[in-house]
Amino acid sequence: MATGGAAKHFNDALSQMQNSAGATETADQTMTDTFQHKAETMQTSAAQNFGITLYGRWNPLCSRCHSVGQLPHPADHRPV
């Protein structure tokens, strides 16, 4: 059973954690609210989207080439 002193210590600890969480959120907002961060985020998104688009366009072509035997599958290369 918690005593009065232990309950106060527990409440103080909870209050400190709440303040810490708020400070972390504020710091994160401050760091991400910059032109550099926004530009880096846009560059990352653009690169990921380009990769997805490139894969989507080349995958069917590579699959067709493989199916007619022009590009052997790496698993087909077994040691002699």
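the 2nd protein, sequnce then structure:
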Amino acid sequence: METVHRKEISFQPEKIEHLTTVPEPPTFLSNPAKKHYKTMGEKLVELNRLKKVYLNALEIFAEAMAQFEFATKQIHAKNREEFGTGYIQTYRTKATNISTEVVLRNDAASTLLKCFKQFGLDPRSERELKGVENVGQLDIFTEFFKEHA
């Protein structure tokens, strides 16, 4: 048998630096989305969480927030006219279904939650980003077995 010697390759991933200012929002974003882009971007810079590689996620967040805001306003406007019509739409055939505004709002909310995770803005992903263990919370089973061992 022939032994093959391989040269060890060590590579270090490029260090990704945090941004200290929010770049201008892309021109393709709607005006409400540009507002959310700037607002959330500033918060992320303040938290030292905005990186150049996350700018696409910030764009997605901004547009999703604009859609969430729009859909919620539409739901409230319809409900002011007749309560419930913002949630349920009734067709000419008298069939009913969830309104398109609710679908839009729920899809936007789902996208927002994914973006929050990307930026470490929920408790679990924040711990993962920081590498911090869940100090102060106990694993119930571990504690139980310690006491009854």
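The longest strand covers residues 88-90. The mean pLDDT is 85.
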